[in-house]
Amino acid sequence: MPNVEWIILITQNYERARTFYKDILQFTVVRETPEEEFCQFKLNNCFLAIYGKKFVSPLIGDDRIGKAATAIYSFGESTDIDNEYQRLKSKGVEFFKEPQTQPWGQRTAYFTDPDGNIWEIQQWLKK
After folding, report:
1. Which of 8, 41, 83, 118 could bond to 27 as cystine, CB 3.0-4.6 Å?
2. How many CB atoms lie within 10 A of CB 29?
């Protein structure tokens, strides 16, 4: 299984999550079934989807649904993380870590979506 095709996030509030990814991050919707609380977005290398918890619970069971912030999802390398940080901030994205240069030569910043999922934007620095 060498290829990740989908990242599917389970949300407590479908409309709030949909608004965040569609209107704030400006991801392109390619398929949506609101009655199932499902929305699929096309990213450059895979699909990101959100599913409302009330639909997923009967599908996989409440005991299998975890809490947000148990993983970090990272967007592909930005060409200018500081500009991307400012752009997202101006759209209302709330970062809990501003861009910082890490000892291993990468510049990173972190924010959460409305459900608490952690997202990283990053840039490798040239030395």
Report:
1. 41
2. 12
